[in-house]
Amino acid sequence: MNVIKKTSDIRLRTIAECGLILLIACMFAVTFNQLRPQGLRLVGDWSPEARLTLESGETIAIPLQEAEAFYHSRAAVFLDARDPEFYALGHIEGARNLPWEEFDQYFDQVMAGIPSGMTIITYCDGEECNLSKDVALVLMEKGYTNVKVLVNGWTLWQDHQLPVSTSLEGASLR
Fold this sequence. Notes:
Layout: H1 2-35, H2 64-73, E1 76-80, H3 84-89, E2 91-92, E3 96-97, H4 103-111, E4 119-123, H5 131-141, E5 147-150, H6 153-159, E6 164-165
Parallel strand pairs: 1-3, 1-4, 4-5
Antiparallel strand pairs: 2-6
């Protein structure tokens, strides 16, 4: 009986020591993170829209309703950042395909005739898809001044039954 009690005491003590070590490690990590000049924020807005806020505080995210208004007034160029295979399966009607993976290869062809001040709306599919953001940021680096990202654009566009196409006009040709 005494042996069972000693074994039980040792297990409890081991569990308590592991918990204490874990607590100390967490405290050390949080303290170190807070002392770093570029530490990670422990609390924040991690929404897709928040991730599209520039250092200046300006957001490049565009709400669906605003993108739809640009579409109907033909005041913007829509760029699909997905692979050509997905573009061929369906895209926003009139959108051009500028796949992120082949950006440099197709940039000149796709962007021909688009003035640097024109409103450009990039999109891909899924809230976690960063292809449209990546395309938008590089377009801004190249001097395009009015670039927006429609987060989860393809899904939202379809869900709201807005005009879509499977035409390959505007596709990146291989």
